[in-house]
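Board notes, transcribed. Complex of a protein with hypoxanthine.
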Amino acid sequence: MSIHINAPADAVAKRVLLPGDPLRAKHIAENFLEDAKLYNEVRNAFGYTGTYKGVPVSVQGTGMGIPSISIYVHELIRGYGARKLIRVGTCGAMHENIKIRDVIIAQAATTDSSVVRNIFGPSINFAPIADFDLLSKAVNCAKDLEISAKVGNIITVDRFYDDEIDNDKLRQYGIMAVEMETAALYILSARYKVQSLGIFTASDHLLTKEVTPASERQTDFNDMVKIALETIIQD
Ligand code: HPA
């Protein structure tokens, strides 16, 4: 039992998928896991545990933004012993080389959030990075599933609506996409020595202003979930 997760210590698996939207957690549990059981309903942040190809896997909705995901990741690691965590989320494509609906694997998560400064002070810009083992396994799983995936740097921002951020400069330095949680996942994973990764589907495009139709979003989302599940069950 932790403050935001109302479940016994053994109710959560060591391998956890992390969608932002709790209803996506429900969708994954119902469509991908065997014998999935709901372990958390506090604040409607649904969490389920089941098995995938015989391996116990949990899926926990994290909510939006660094403060929200930090609570769930912290409690999953410290309270429940989670050791492999993969965020499965949507992102805004911001580079001309990225198309809407592309799958993106975040090798690193640049951020404008104070979360880095709050830990390291003004003189050190810590680089939040993915676990290399999970990253390389995810790249191979995507190849095996014949899903093309782009790997590189993304940005985790504090504000969804932000007319001050310099997207042109970020693009010049190769930032592929924007979302709001992964830097915190990578920092907490470094701190507590666990493995984590972020995999995304581009749901909108900052340059072209395209947005994926709701009808296509589920199929795109499922491709990303397959990569994440095939990756997380490996030893
Ligand atoms: N900005 C920030 N976060 C996002 C976006 C975006 O355009 N799309 C999906 N998550």
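Residues 10 and 89 are 26 Å apart (CA to CA). Helices lie at 22-32, 66-80, 114-120, 132-144, 167-172, 182-192, 214-232.
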